[in-house]
Design a protein that fits this description.
The protein is of the alpha+beta class. Helix content is about 30%, strand content about 25%. The strands form 2 sheets. Strands 3, 4, 5, 6, 7 and 8 form a 6-stranded antiparallel β-sheet that branches. A two-stranded antiparallel ribbon has the order 1-2. A hairpin with a 2-residue loop joins strand 5 and strand 6.
């Protein structure tokens, strides 16, 4: 059938989306699920034992193609929207913003507070395991990140190597 989400469906499985899932982990879950479906039902399909059912075209949903501009993280978003944007872009292509003219990819983040502040986008804390930013409706902590030319790293590893530069230069930035 030359249409999206149309035609006969021979098997259906559900994949649970956890709060910790992102694009990459969900993709991996779906690949594993599809592999199991094929292994467990392909012979039945070839033998004509599976009875297909038409898909409900009223349940079709569409998503816009992600553009380069969509990958740029907006620090004026709510915590929930910011974190969900990070999740949908992680690990590839990865959401980013600029700090001191350097591309800073955020690959995992979580909300730590509902405390509102005036300086949206400001770094509030950069020590030990915490890199905390103020957003419009609370504060988020970045858990994993990537800077140009480096591998993905935990915040603690980033802070061990870049804390002085961060404190010296990045606190001054307006977002």
């Amino acid at each position: 059938v030359k249409a999206m989400d149309a035609g006969v469906m021979y098997h259906k499985e559900y994949v649970k989306i956890e709060d910790t899932d992102n694009y990459t982990s969900l993709y991996d879950k779906m690949i594993e699920c599809a592999k199991q479906v094929i292994l467990n039902s392909f012979d039945d399909y070839l033998e004509g034992k599976l009875i297909g059912e038409p898909q409900d075209e009223s349940e079709v949903t569409f998503a816009d193609k992600i553009t380069k501009e969509d990958e740029k993280l907006n620090l004026t978003l709510s915590c929930e929207k910011f974190i969900n944007t990070v999740r949908c872009l992680s690990y590839n292509p990865g959401g980013y913003f600029y700090l001191d003219q350097n591309k800073f990819k955020v690959l995992r983040a979580h909300k730590i507070s509902d405390q509102k502040g005036e300086n949206i986008g400001q770094i509030l804390e950069a020590k030990k395991h915490n890199l905390v930013f103020q957003l419009c409706d609370g504060q988020i902590c970045i858990d994993e990140l990537q800077i140009p030319g480096k591998k993905v790293m935990k915040t603690a590893d980033f802070l061990n190597g870049y804390k002085e530069k961060l404190v010296g230069n990045f606190f001054k930035n307006e977002f």
